[in-house]
Automatic annotation (TrEMBL):
Organism field: Janibacter limosus
Start and end residues of each FMN hydroxy acid dehydrogenase domain: 7-390
GO MF annotation list: FMN binding; oxidoreductase activity
NCBIfam families: actino_HemFlav
Pfam families xrefs: FMN_dh
Gene: mftD
Classification via SUPFAM superfamilies: FMN-linked oxidoreductases (SSF51395)
Claim: Transmembrane is one of the keywords in the record: no
Listed cofactors: FMN
Keywords: Flavoprotein, FMN, Oxidoreductase
Active site: 285
Family from the record: Belongs to the FMN-dependent alpha-hydroxy acid dehydrogenase family.
Family annotation (CDD domains): alpha_hydroxyacid_oxid_FMN
Protein name as catalogued: Mycofactocin system-associated heme/flavin dehydrogenase
Binding-site positions, FMN: 86-88, 114, 134, 162, 261, 283, 316-320, 339-340
Protein backbone atom coordinates (compact mmCIF):
# COMPACT_ATOMS: atom_id res chain seq x y z
CA UNK A 1 0.00 0.00 0.00
CA UNK A 2 1.24 3.45 -0.82
CA UNK A 3 1.80 5.78 2.11
CA UNK A 4 0.45 8.69 0.13
CA UNK A 5 -3.32 8.70 0.63
CA UNK A 6 -3.72 10.76 -2.56
CA UNK A 7 -1.72 8.37 -4.74
CA UNK A 8 -3.74 7.04 -7.61
CA UNK A 9 -5.16 3.56 -7.14
CA UNK A 10 -3.45 1.67 -9.97
CA UNK A 11 -6.56 -0.48 -10.54
CA UNK A 12 -8.82 0.63 -13.38
CA UNK A 13 -12.43 -0.22 -14.06
CA UNK A 14 -12.52 -0.32 -17.86
CA UNK A 15 -10.20 -0.66 -20.82
CA UNK A 16 -11.03 2.94 -21.75
CA UNK A 17 -9.62 4.11 -18.41
CA UNK A 18 -6.51 1.96 -19.00
CA UNK A 19 -6.08 3.71 -22.35
CA UNK A 20 -6.34 7.17 -20.75
CA UNK A 21 -3.69 6.18 -18.19
CA UNK A 22 -1.41 4.68 -20.84
CA UNK A 23 -1.70 7.90 -22.81
CA UNK A 24 -0.59 9.91 -19.79
CA UNK A 25 2.22 7.54 -18.93
CA UNK A 26 3.82 6.67 -22.26
CA UNK A 27 5.91 8.97 -24.43
CA UNK A 28 3.82 10.40 -27.27
CA UNK A 29 5.60 8.35 -29.95
CA UNK A 30 5.13 5.06 -28.07
CA UNK A 31 1.45 5.80 -27.46
CA UNK A 32 1.05 6.78 -31.13
CA UNK A 33 2.64 3.51 -32.26
CA UNK A 34 0.00 1.58 -30.29
CA UNK A 35 -2.94 3.64 -31.57
CA UNK A 36 -1.57 2.92 -35.07
CA UNK A 37 -4.23 2.41 -37.78
CA UNK A 38 -3.64 3.12 -41.45
CA UNK A 39 -4.60 5.74 -44.03
CA UNK A 40 -7.88 7.45 -43.04
CA UNK A 41 -8.59 5.00 -40.21
CA UNK A 42 -11.82 3.65 -41.71
CA UNK A 43 -11.10 0.07 -40.57
CA UNK A 44 -9.66 1.15 -37.23
CA UNK A 45 -12.86 3.08 -36.47
CA UNK A 46 -15.22 0.41 -37.78
CA UNK A 47 -13.55 -2.31 -35.66
CA UNK A 48 -14.87 -0.71 -32.46
CA UNK A 49 -17.93 1.06 -33.90
CA UNK A 50 -19.40 -2.17 -35.32
CA UNK A 51 -19.70 -3.56 -31.78
CA UNK A 52 -21.80 -0.54 -30.78
CA UNK A 53 -24.31 -1.44 -33.52
CA UNK A 54 -24.97 -4.81 -31.89
CA UNK A 55 -27.27 -4.99 -28.87
CA UNK A 56 -27.95 -7.66 -26.28
CA UNK A 57 -31.34 -9.29 -25.59
CA UNK A 58 -31.40 -10.14 -21.87
CA UNK A 59 -33.94 -12.10 -19.83
CA UNK A 60 -35.39 -10.72 -16.60
CA UNK A 61 -35.54 -13.92 -14.53
CA UNK A 62 -34.56 -17.55 -14.76
CA UNK A 63 -30.89 -16.69 -14.48
CA UNK A 64 -28.47 -19.46 -13.61
CA UNK A 65 -26.04 -19.52 -10.69
CA UNK A 66 -23.09 -21.09 -12.52
CA UNK A 67 -21.59 -19.81 -15.71
CA UNK A 68 -18.79 -21.61 -17.55
CA UNK A 69 -16.41 -19.84 -19.89
CA UNK A 70 -13.44 -22.19 -20.22
CA UNK A 71 -12.58 -23.45 -23.70
CA UNK A 72 -9.50 -24.38 -25.73
CA UNK A 73 -7.58 -22.89 -28.64
CA UNK A 74 -5.12 -24.87 -30.78
CA UNK A 75 -5.30 -27.69 -28.23
CA UNK A 76 -4.49 -25.46 -25.24
CA UNK A 77 -7.04 -25.18 -22.41
CA UNK A 78 -7.87 -21.61 -21.46
CA UNK A 79 -10.00 -20.38 -18.56
CA UNK A 80 -11.78 -17.69 -20.59
CA UNK A 81 -12.37 -17.33 -24.34
CA UNK A 82 -9.73 -14.61 -24.75
CA UNK A 83 -6.08 -14.94 -25.72
CA UNK A 84 -3.36 -12.37 -26.31
CA UNK A 85 -2.94 -11.48 -29.97
CA UNK A 86 0.67 -11.11 -31.10
CA UNK A 87 1.84 -7.50 -31.15
CA UNK A 88 5.32 -6.27 -31.95
CA UNK A 89 5.37 -4.16 -28.79
CA UNK A 90 8.60 -2.36 -28.42
CA UNK A 91 9.30 -0.02 -25.55
CA UNK A 92 5.93 -0.07 -23.75
CA UNK A 93 7.40 -1.66 -20.65
CA UNK A 94 10.84 -3.10 -19.86
CA UNK A 95 9.38 -6.58 -19.24
CA UNK A 96 7.49 -6.31 -22.54
CA UNK A 97 5.99 -9.60 -23.71
CA UNK A 98 7.28 -11.42 -20.61
CA UNK A 99 4.94 -9.26 -18.48
CA UNK A 100 2.07 -10.04 -20.88
CA UNK A 101 2.91 -13.76 -20.78
CA UNK A 102 3.01 -13.80 -16.97
CA UNK A 103 -0.32 -11.98 -16.76
CA UNK A 104 -1.89 -14.41 -19.23
CA UNK A 105 -0.53 -17.36 -17.22
CA UNK A 106 -1.83 -15.87 -13.97
CA UNK A 107 -5.31 -15.62 -15.49
CA UNK A 108 -5.23 -19.01 -17.21
CA UNK A 109 -4.83 -18.07 -20.82
CA UNK A 110 -2.41 -18.19 -23.74
CA UNK A 111 -0.25 -15.65 -25.56
CA UNK A 112 0.58 -15.22 -29.22
CA UNK A 113 4.18 -13.97 -29.46
CA UNK A 114 5.09 -11.79 -32.43
CA UNK A 115 8.24 -12.53 -34.37
CA UNK A 116 8.87 -8.79 -34.03
CA UNK A 117 8.58 -8.99 -30.23
CA UNK A 118 11.19 -7.42 -28.00
CA UNK A 119 11.66 -10.56 -25.86
CA UNK A 120 12.83 -14.02 -26.89
CA UNK A 121 10.50 -16.97 -27.38
CA UNK A 122 12.54 -18.88 -24.77
CA UNK A 123 11.90 -16.21 -22.09
CA UNK A 124 8.23 -15.96 -22.98
CA UNK A 125 7.62 -19.74 -22.92
CA UNK A 126 9.32 -19.84 -19.53
CA UNK A 127 6.85 -17.19 -18.30
CA UNK A 128 3.87 -18.94 -19.91
CA UNK A 129 4.14 -22.46 -21.38
CA UNK A 130 0.96 -21.76 -23.36
CA UNK A 131 2.69 -19.66 -26.00
CA UNK A 132 1.94 -19.65 -29.72
CA UNK A 133 4.68 -18.26 -31.94
CA UNK A 134 3.61 -15.84 -34.68
CA UNK A 135 5.46 -15.49 -37.96
CA UNK A 136 5.12 -13.26 -40.96
CA UNK A 137 6.21 -14.47 -44.38
CA UNK A 138 9.72 -13.08 -44.24
CA UNK A 139 13.08 -14.41 -45.34
CA UNK A 140 13.59 -17.51 -47.47
CA UNK A 141 12.32 -20.99 -46.67
CA UNK A 142 15.59 -22.05 -45.01
CA UNK A 143 15.42 -19.06 -42.68
CA UNK A 144 11.77 -19.78 -41.90
CA UNK A 145 12.53 -23.45 -41.17
CA UNK A 146 15.23 -22.38 -38.75
CA UNK A 147 12.92 -19.87 -36.98
CA UNK A 148 10.16 -22.48 -36.69
CA UNK A 149 12.63 -25.02 -35.32
CA UNK A 150 13.76 -22.55 -32.69
CA UNK A 151 10.18 -21.80 -31.61
CA UNK A 152 9.37 -25.53 -31.51
CA UNK A 153 12.49 -26.28 -29.46
CA UNK A 154 11.57 -23.46 -27.06
CA UNK A 155 8.22 -25.19 -26.49
CA UNK A 156 5.77 -23.03 -28.46
CA UNK A 157 2.50 -24.96 -28.68
CA UNK A 158 1.24 -23.59 -31.98
CA UNK A 159 2.19 -21.40 -34.90
CA UNK A 160 0.25 -18.33 -35.99
CA UNK A 161 0.96 -17.28 -39.58
CA UNK A 162 -0.06 -13.67 -40.13
CA UNK A 163 -0.35 -13.14 -43.85
CA UNK A 164 -2.63 -10.13 -44.23
CA UNK A 165 0.07 -7.45 -44.29
CA UNK A 166 0.26 -5.34 -47.44
CA UNK A 167 2.71 -2.58 -46.44
CA UNK A 168 0.09 0.11 -46.73
CA UNK A 169 1.86 3.27 -45.65
CA UNK A 170 0.88 6.57 -44.18
CA UNK A 171 -1.85 7.60 -41.81
CA UNK A 172 -3.67 10.90 -41.82
CA UNK A 173 -2.82 11.65 -38.17
CA UNK A 174 0.88 11.00 -38.76
CA UNK A 175 3.13 8.09 -37.86
CA UNK A 176 5.41 8.55 -34.86
CA UNK A 177 9.08 8.75 -35.56
CA UNK A 178 10.67 5.66 -34.07
CA UNK A 179 14.45 5.61 -33.71
CA UNK A 180 16.28 2.40 -34.51
CA UNK A 181 18.27 2.61 -31.31
CA UNK A 182 17.96 4.90 -28.34
CA UNK A 183 21.49 6.24 -28.75
CA UNK A 184 22.67 9.67 -27.66
CA UNK A 185 21.38 11.47 -30.76
CA UNK A 186 17.92 9.92 -30.66
CA UNK A 187 17.74 10.31 -26.88
CA UNK A 188 18.31 14.03 -27.33
CA UNK A 189 15.59 14.13 -29.94
CA UNK A 190 13.18 12.19 -27.74
CA UNK A 191 14.19 14.02 -24.56
CA UNK A 192 11.34 16.55 -24.53
CA UNK A 193 8.76 13.72 -24.73
CA UNK A 194 10.53 11.52 -22.20
CA UNK A 195 10.97 14.31 -19.68
CA UNK A 196 7.19 14.62 -19.64
CA UNK A 197 6.89 10.88 -18.95
CA UNK A 198 9.24 10.31 -15.98
CA UNK A 199 7.48 7.19 -14.72
CA UNK A 200 7.91 5.39 -18.04
CA UNK A 201 11.59 6.41 -18.20
CA UNK A 202 12.09 5.28 -14.59
CA UNK A 203 10.68 1.80 -15.30
CA UNK A 204 13.37 1.32 -17.95
CA UNK A 205 16.12 3.09 -16.01
CA UNK A 206 15.69 0.96 -12.88
CA UNK A 207 16.07 -2.21 -14.98
CA UNK A 208 19.22 -0.69 -16.51
CA UNK A 209 17.51 -1.42 -19.75
CA UNK A 210 17.09 1.28 -22.38
CA UNK A 211 14.62 0.29 -25.07
CA UNK A 212 16.65 -1.22 -27.86
CA UNK A 213 14.53 -1.91 -30.88
CA UNK A 214 15.72 -5.32 -32.00
CA UNK A 215 13.83 -8.49 -32.90
CA UNK A 216 15.59 -11.29 -30.93
CA UNK A 217 13.41 -14.02 -32.43
CA UNK A 218 14.76 -13.28 -35.88
CA UNK A 219 18.40 -13.77 -34.84
CA UNK A 220 20.47 -16.06 -37.05
CA UNK A 221 21.76 -19.23 -35.33
CA UNK A 222 24.68 -18.37 -33.08
CA UNK A 223 23.80 -14.66 -32.97
CA UNK A 224 22.67 -13.49 -29.55
CA UNK A 225 20.97 -10.27 -30.67
CA UNK A 226 18.52 -10.16 -33.49
CA UNK A 227 18.39 -7.65 -36.31
CA UNK A 228 17.16 -4.14 -35.63
CA UNK A 229 13.46 -3.60 -36.08
CA UNK A 230 14.08 -1.75 -39.34
CA UNK A 231 16.44 -4.39 -40.76
CA UNK A 232 13.77 -6.99 -39.95
CA UNK A 233 11.11 -4.87 -41.64
CA UNK A 234 13.34 -4.52 -44.72
CA UNK A 235 13.77 -8.31 -44.98
CA UNK A 236 9.99 -8.67 -44.78
CA UNK A 237 9.28 -5.99 -47.41
CA UNK A 238 11.69 -7.55 -49.86
CA UNK A 239 10.40 -11.13 -49.47
CA UNK A 240 8.18 -12.38 -52.33
CA UNK A 241 4.62 -12.66 -50.95
CA UNK A 242 3.39 -16.20 -50.23
CA UNK A 243 1.25 -18.36 -52.52
CA UNK A 244 -1.38 -20.76 -51.15
CA UNK A 245 1.16 -23.57 -51.73
CA UNK A 246 3.55 -21.66 -49.46
CA UNK A 247 0.88 -21.52 -46.75
CA UNK A 248 0.38 -25.27 -47.06
CA UNK A 249 4.15 -25.78 -46.92
CA UNK A 250 4.40 -23.66 -43.77
CA UNK A 251 1.60 -25.55 -42.01
CA UNK A 252 3.20 -28.91 -42.90
CA UNK A 253 6.68 -27.75 -41.96
CA UNK A 254 5.41 -26.63 -38.55
CA UNK A 255 3.67 -29.97 -38.16
CA UNK A 256 1.47 -28.99 -35.21
CA UNK A 257 -1.47 -26.71 -34.41
CA UNK A 258 -1.46 -23.92 -37.01
CA UNK A 259 -3.52 -20.73 -37.24
CA UNK A 260 -3.84 -18.50 -40.28
CA UNK A 261 -4.44 -14.94 -39.04
CA UNK A 262 -5.97 -12.16 -41.10
CA UNK A 263 -8.79 -13.94 -42.97
CA UNK A 264 -11.70 -11.70 -44.09
CA UNK A 265 -13.31 -13.66 -46.91
CA UNK A 266 -15.37 -16.84 -47.06
CA UNK A 267 -13.44 -18.19 -50.08
CA UNK A 268 -10.10 -17.69 -48.29
CA UNK A 269 -11.46 -19.36 -45.15
CA UNK A 270 -12.55 -22.41 -47.18
CA UNK A 271 -9.22 -22.57 -48.95
CA UNK A 272 -7.36 -22.40 -45.64
CA UNK A 273 -9.54 -25.20 -44.25
CA UNK A 274 -8.99 -27.34 -47.33
CA UNK A 275 -5.24 -27.10 -47.12
CA UNK A 276 -5.24 -28.24 -43.51
CA UNK A 277 -5.00 -25.31 -41.07
CA UNK A 278 -6.31 -25.99 -37.56
CA UNK A 279 -7.64 -22.47 -36.99
CA UNK A 280 -8.12 -19.06 -38.54
CA UNK A 281 -8.43 -15.65 -36.99
CA UNK A 282 -10.91 -13.38 -38.74
CA UNK A 283 -8.96 -10.14 -38.57
CA UNK A 284 -7.97 -6.95 -40.35
CA UNK A 285 -4.79 -6.55 -38.27
CA UNK A 286 -6.48 -4.16 -35.88
CA UNK A 287 -7.18 -1.71 -38.73
CA UNK A 288 -3.43 -1.30 -39.29
CA UNK A 289 -3.36 -2.90 -42.71
CA UNK A 290 -5.50 -2.28 -45.80
CA UNK A 291 -7.83 0.54 -44.87
CA UNK A 292 -11.44 -0.05 -45.90
CA UNK A 293 -11.45 -3.72 -44.83
CA UNK A 294 -14.67 -4.20 -42.84
CA UNK A 295 -14.61 -4.79 -39.11
CA UNK A 296 -13.95 -8.50 -38.46
CA UNK A 297 -17.16 -8.79 -36.41
CA UNK A 298 -19.12 -8.01 -39.62
CA UNK A 299 -17.50 -10.76 -41.69
CA UNK A 300 -17.34 -13.30 -38.86
CA UNK A 301 -20.90 -14.74 -39.17
CA UNK A 302 -20.51 -15.72 -42.86
CA UNK A 303 -17.07 -17.25 -42.27
CA UNK A 304 -18.15 -19.11 -39.12
CA UNK A 305 -21.16 -20.54 -41.01
CA UNK A 306 -18.90 -21.73 -43.81
CA UNK A 307 -16.04 -23.36 -41.88
CA UNK A 308 -16.84 -23.18 -38.16
CA UNK A 309 -17.73 -26.88 -37.94
CA UNK A 310 -14.43 -27.92 -39.50
CA UNK A 311 -11.78 -25.66 -37.96
CA UNK A 312 -11.46 -23.27 -35.02
CA UNK A 313 -12.66 -19.78 -35.93
CA UNK A 314 -11.31 -16.94 -33.80
CA UNK A 315 -11.63 -13.24 -34.39
CA UNK A 316 -9.70 -10.18 -33.35
CA UNK A 317 -10.21 -6.44 -33.74
CA UNK A 318 -12.02 -3.91 -31.58
CA UNK A 319 -12.57 -6.05 -28.45
CA UNK A 320 -12.66 -3.68 -25.48
CA UNK A 321 -15.13 -5.27 -23.04
CA UNK A 322 -16.62 -8.59 -22.00
CA UNK A 323 -19.84 -7.96 -23.90
CA UNK A 324 -17.78 -7.57 -27.11
CA UNK A 325 -16.38 -11.07 -26.49
CA UNK A 326 -19.91 -12.40 -25.95
CA UNK A 327 -21.11 -10.77 -29.20
CA UNK A 328 -18.25 -12.42 -31.12
CA UNK A 329 -19.00 -15.82 -29.58
CA UNK A 330 -22.73 -15.44 -30.32
CA UNK A 331 -21.81 -14.82 -33.97
CA UNK A 332 -19.72 -17.97 -34.20
CA UNK A 333 -16.24 -17.32 -32.78
CA UNK A 334 -14.72 -19.99 -30.55
CA UNK A 335 -12.63 -17.35 -28.78
CA UNK A 336 -11.22 -13.90 -29.45
CA UNK A 337 -7.76 -12.40 -29.47
CA UNK A 338 -7.07 -8.98 -27.98
CA UNK A 339 -4.40 -6.50 -29.01
CA UNK A 340 -4.73 -2.89 -27.85
CA UNK A 341 -6.82 -3.84 -24.80
CA UNK A 342 -3.82 -5.53 -23.16
CA UNK A 343 -1.36 -2.99 -24.54
CA UNK A 344 -3.29 -0.26 -22.71
CA UNK A 345 -3.19 -2.36 -19.54
CA UNK A 346 0.56 -2.91 -19.96
CA UNK A 347 1.15 0.79 -20.55
CA UNK A 348 -1.01 1.77 -17.58
CA UNK A 349 0.31 -0.66 -14.98
CA UNK A 350 2.66 -3.34 -16.35
CA UNK A 351 1.81 -7.00 -15.67
CA UNK A 352 -0.85 -6.07 -13.08
CA UNK A 353 -2.49 -3.84 -15.69
CA UNK A 354 -2.72 -6.75 -18.15
CA UNK A 355 -4.24 -8.94 -15.40
CA UNK A 356 -6.66 -6.09 -14.66
CA UNK A 357 -7.76 -6.08 -18.32
CA UNK A 358 -8.33 -9.86 -18.30
CA UNK A 359 -10.35 -9.52 -15.08
CA UNK A 360 -12.51 -6.79 -16.67
CA UNK A 361 -13.17 -9.01 -19.68
CA UNK A 362 -13.91 -12.05 -17.50
CA UNK A 363 -16.41 -10.19 -15.35
CA UNK A 364 -18.00 -8.59 -18.43
CA UNK A 365 -18.46 -12.01 -20.05
CA UNK A 366 -19.92 -13.32 -16.81
CA UNK A 367 -22.40 -10.42 -16.54
CA UNK A 368 -23.53 -10.91 -20.12
CA UNK A 369 -24.03 -14.66 -19.60
CA UNK A 370 -25.98 -13.95 -16.42
CA UNK A 371 -28.18 -11.39 -18.13
CA UNK A 372 -28.84 -13.72 -21.03
CA UNK A 373 -29.72 -16.59 -18.69
CA UNK A 374 -26.95 -18.89 -19.90
CA UNK A 375 -24.83 -21.29 -17.90
CA UNK A 376 -22.08 -21.57 -20.49
CA UNK A 377 -20.54 -19.72 -23.43
CA UNK A 378 -21.55 -22.76 -25.52
CA UNK A 379 -25.19 -21.65 -25.28
CA UNK A 380 -24.59 -18.28 -26.96
CA UNK A 381 -26.24 -17.79 -30.36
CA UNK A 382 -27.34 -14.91 -32.62
CA UNK A 383 -30.70 -15.06 -30.77
CA UNK A 384 -28.96 -13.34 -27.86
CA UNK A 385 -28.19 -10.29 -29.97
CA UNK A 386 -30.00 -7.37 -31.51
CA UNK A 387 -28.53 -7.33 -35.02
CA UNK A 388 -29.50 -4.43 -37.28
CA UNK A 389 -30.34 -5.18 -40.87
CA UNK A 390 -27.33 -4.91 -43.14
CA UNK A 391 -24.86 -5.40 -40.29
CA UNK A 392 -23.00 -8.37 -41.73
CA UNK A 393 -20.74 -8.39 -44.79
CA UNK A 394 -20.27 -11.58 -46.78
CA UNK A 395 -17.06 -11.33 -48.76
CA UNK A 396 -16.00 -13.85 -51.39
CA UNK A 397 -18.97 -16.18 -51.35
C1 LIG B 1 0.95 -1.97 -31.90
C2 LIG B 1 0.48 -3.18 -32.62
C3 LIG B 1 1.40 -4.11 -33.08
C4 LIG B 1 0.97 -5.26 -33.75
N1 LIG B 1 1.90 -6.18 -34.16
C5 LIG B 1 1.47 -7.36 -34.70
C6 LIG B 1 2.41 -8.38 -35.01
O1 LIG B 1 3.60 -8.24 -34.81
N2 LIG B 1 1.92 -9.54 -35.52
C7 LIG B 1 0.57 -9.75 -35.74
O2 LIG B 1 0.18 -10.82 -36.20
N3 LIG B 1 -0.32 -8.78 -35.46
C8 LIG B 1 0.09 -7.61 -34.93
N4 LIG B 1 -0.83 -6.67 -34.56
C9 LIG B 1 -2.26 -6.96 -34.76
C10 LIG B 1 -2.83 -7.67 -33.53
O3 LIG B 1 -2.35 -8.98 -33.40
C11 LIG B 1 -4.36 -7.76 -33.61
O4 LIG B 1 -4.72 -8.30 -34.85
C12 LIG B 1 -5.03 -6.41 -33.40
O5 LIG B 1 -4.36 -5.63 -32.47
C13 LIG B 1 -6.47 -6.64 -32.95
O6 LIG B 1 -7.15 -5.44 -32.84
P1 LIG B 1 -7.34 -4.67 -31.44
O7 LIG B 1 -6.06 -3.98 -31.17
O8 LIG B 1 -8.46 -3.75 -31.71
O9 LIG B 1 -7.65 -5.72 -30.39
C14 LIG B 1 -0.42 -5.49 -33.94
C15 LIG B 1 -1.34 -4.57 -33.44
C16 LIG B 1 -0.92 -3.42 -32.79
C17 LIG B 1 -1.94 -2.47 -32.26
Amino acid sequence: MSKNPWAQNPWFESVAVAQQRAKKRLPKSVYGALVAGSERGQSLTDNEAAFTELGLAPHVAGHLPDRAMATSVLGVDISLPVIMSPTGVQAVHPDGEVAVARAAAARGTAIGLSNFASRSVEDVVEANPNTFFQMYWTGDRDVMVQRMARARAAGAKGLIATLDWSFSMGRDWGSPEIPEKIDFASALKLAPEVVRRPRWAWEFAKEGNIPDLTAPNLAAPGEDKGPTFFAAYYEWMTTTPPTWEDVEWMAKEWGGPFMLKGVCRIDDAKRARDLGVSAISVSNHGGNNLDGTPAPIRVLPGIADAVGDDIEVLMDGGIRRGSDVVKALALGARAVMIGRAYLWGLGANGQAGVENVLDILRSGIDSALLGMGHSSIDELSPEDLVIPEGFARRLGE
